[in-house]
Amino acid sequence: MKQVTVPTLQVEAYASLAGEAAVERIRALARPLEGLRVVHVNATAYGGGVVELLYPLVGLMNGLGIPTEWWVLEGTDAFFNVTKTAHNGLQGADVAIDPAMQAIYREVNLANSRFDWDRYDLVIIHDPQPAALASLVGERKAPWIWRCHIDLSTPNPDVWAWIRPYVAAYDGAIFSLAQYVQRDLTLPLIAIIPPSINPLSEKNRDLEPAEVEAVLERFGIDRNRPLITQISRFDPWKDPLGVIDAYRLVKEAIPGVQLLLVGSMATDDPEGWTFYDRTLRRAGEDGDIFVLANLHGIHDREVNAFQRASDVIIQKSLREGFGLTVTEGLWKGRPVVGGETGGIPLQIQDGQNGFLVDSVEACAERTRWLLEHPDEASQMGARGREHVREHFLSTRELEDHLQLMARALKITPPVTPREGLFLAG
To answer: Cα(275)–Cα(257) distance, rounded to whole angstroms?
Structure first.
């Protein structure tokens, strides 16, 4: 495995956004945990929401005196094809993991299991890719927690039956929503921790108007015409093709509208390039559709500028583990039109800070309404930013993880857990 280097962060830097009370609670929770060692393992160091979560979480834990490391497992193209199939199956797709695929999956996990796990007091493994590790390590001295970031509400039964024994080997699990916890999964500890965003990151910090203008100019986007944007991986579950169809319906009423689709190519998502090509074909020769990815020089600063420049942000997911791009859009003070799935309804209060939709037609109708009612859209955006401040900043997720760590290690925390944090344990 390869280690990811993360800068140390100080929780006091978040006081002006999260509040002094939150910082004091975090400090109190961290004191009995100082010196304990934690390790996170996932499948990629860039691209996707898991990476966005781990940078601030690991950095802040180290800043609190809790030595925390982040390692990425190494895999083959064949392995990541298997895990992408597994990801789709766990979100309900009609796929199969045949014996040859199962053997590839186990072989790569076995190779990555040869690691000095005993130096840690808590091990947290993220998502399906490294899920087999707990069952392959043998005698484990520390508690092992599996963190599921995907929508597991209605998994393909055969795919879940295949991976469930691997998950059952853990001492506990974390899910983004309670409805993702399968009834046949019984573990000593189950926590519900919605993801969060780092308000001080390059993607979410405040930008000067001139910075935003410079980014738009670089990519040929007209600041004087309406802009609707979806920031997501190129993935069938994110439905970029449906977003293009909705945009075309909006364009019939508002001819000047522009559409921006921005995605990041992650190393553990080989399907991304195929769907990127499909998105380009659906966009065709329309010069008002911009399809961009990290290969075009798109980084966090550019994403930040695009979101701030947008009149409406869309996240038309068909399945969604949580949807941090919704959180990011709301934090920028923009109304968001999102699919009524996964963690999106936890963030979008329908009619208050955006709209929930379940079809191309509804997506187009709500987007058009927001473009035609800019004052109401601005008010909705302001409410969205406050909703994120209250519920979805890194400090809240950090506080939840400190509570989880105390519970897993049987340490009595000095602060009462958030209601609904624990379903078991």
So the answer is: 24
